[in-house]
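Help needed: design a sequence for this.
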């Protein structure tokens, strides 16, 4: 497996106003944008060719950002989002023939991409969905005795022995790539019609811990997981400054940011270059401070 596509053209409406400043895949996570973490996982799994689509705030995908990726990336602009299936169809020239790993640009998961691709080849599947396990009847996907998809979006195609959550990462083979519409959704416009024809889709086990960074709470949880995975109590990036009177706990302060005042910063993310003042009388908790100075707080 040498080719992969990162889907990065979505609008990210549930994360506004954060996504009024940055596309969702570029949200800062620890020491780099989310999409850079995805690229790292792909390269670790043997991927050597990556395409990325962009649409919303397309200019934010700068050359400097893409040059820092661990693999060359071909960027494809969509005047308006083509959808998960349409985006992959549009990238055919960039990706070449054969199987392709497709990764939603808002998903953070420590997935073994090489193992996913190996499972796909062993099954000879048209597509293989990475699925985090759950009991039968639960989750977004039902799995049959041979690991096949038997439930998807409420439709049933066989006897279910286990449930699971589709984690937004899959391998697409040539038979399905030839059926991709120029606009449309992989699940609704490709997978469901395929299953209704009596054809099979495979699944492969994914880690139970993963993040769909579609809400502010999920974004903050992913940031906390990034800190925990590195045994860090907090992270202060290069060139950032934190006033002596500020107690930083469970927070990420991006490169070049400034935290001033006196008080507590708890469970927060301060974007690179942002500036925020902390008031001793009111700790700043579970909030994101953007480069443009917005302070966006998670619901209690």
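Sure. Designed sequence:
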């Amino acid at each position: 497996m040498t080719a992969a596509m990162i889907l990065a053209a979505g609008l990210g409406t549930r994360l506004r106003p954060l996504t009024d400043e940055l596309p969702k895949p570029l949200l800062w996570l620890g020491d780099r944008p989310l999409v850079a973490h995805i690229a790292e996982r792909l390269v670790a799994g043997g991927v050597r060719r990556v395409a990325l689509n962009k649409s919303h705030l397309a200019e934010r995908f700068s050359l400097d950002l893409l040059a820092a990726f661990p693999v060359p990336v071909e960027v494809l602009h969509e005047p308006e989002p083509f959808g998960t299936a349409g985006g992959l169809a549009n990238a055919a020239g960039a990706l070449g023939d054969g199987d392709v790993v497709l990764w939603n640009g808002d998903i953070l998961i420590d997935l073994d991409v090489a193992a996913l691709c190996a499972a796909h080849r062993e099954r000879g599947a048209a597509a293989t969905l990475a699925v985090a396990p759950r009991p039968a009847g639960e989750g977004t996907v039902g799995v049959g005795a041979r690991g096949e998809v038997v439930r998807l979006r409420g439709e049933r195609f066989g006897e279910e022995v286990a449930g699971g959550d589709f984690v937004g990462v899959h391998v697409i083979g040539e038979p399905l790539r030839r059926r991709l519409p120029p606009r449309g959704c992989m699940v609704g416009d490709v997978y469901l019609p395929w299953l209704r024809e009596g054809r099979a889709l495979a699944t492969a086990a994914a880690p139970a811990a993963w993040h769909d960074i579609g809400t502010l709470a999920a974004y903050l949880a992913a940031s906390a997981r990034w800190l925990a995975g590195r045994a860090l109590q907090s992270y202060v990036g290069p060139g950032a400054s934190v006033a002596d009177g500020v107690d930083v706990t469970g927070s990420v302060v991006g490169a070049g940011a400034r935290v001033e005042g006196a008080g507590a910063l708890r469970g927060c993310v301060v974007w690179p270059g942002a500036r925020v003042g902390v008031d001793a009388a009111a700790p700043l908790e579970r909030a994101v401070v953007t480069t443009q100075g917005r302070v966006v707080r998670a619901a209690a």
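The longest strand covers residues 162-172.
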